[in-house]
Amino acid sequence: xxxxxxxxxxxxxxxxxxxxxxxxxxxxxxxxxxxxxxxxxxxxxxxxxxxxxxxxxxxxxxxxxxxxxxxxxxxxxxxxxxxxxxxxxxxxxxxxxxxxxxxxxxxxxxxxxxxxxxxxxxxxxxxxxxxxxxxxxxxxxxxxxxxxxxxxxxxxxxxxxxxxxxxxxxxxxxxx
Length: 176
Known about the structure:
Blueprint: H1 2-11, E1 17-21, H2 26-35, E2 42-46, H3 54-67, E3 72-75, H4 85-98, E4 102-106, E5 116-119, H5 123-127, H6 136-142, E6 147-150, H7 162-173
Parallel strand pairs: 1-2, 4-6
Antiparallel strand pairs: 3-5, 4-5
């Protein structure tokens, strides 16, 4: 799942792809390294405080974006392997055009979801997030200022529970 998500992001218009992993999963580091050897646009970083949850990865991503003086940061979760290159590129394109504080997909329910392109003006707020959460509260606070891109609900599925992961494994092995 992580390899598929990484491949999708690498196929998009993103200039640098950073995969952020917990320190206690050398198997994931090896998996990414073996799947994408000698890929200059790909960096693997370790979230040393991964026990803090999703916010730890978010902080590492923001640190990398700030160090590169990036104007925006695409946050794409590793457990969302059905997100398409077309959606990622639409988010990036719309963000560059509309200059919103954040650009996110909308399943048609009016609520922004992941993946999200965050403007650099939001980096400090993202770096301050604590616990096992991402930028959802920031998106809520931004309200209508968030630019939304209509997306198919079937590509915005995350596989973050054992049951959902088992369902993904079954679908990935299905012939077709």
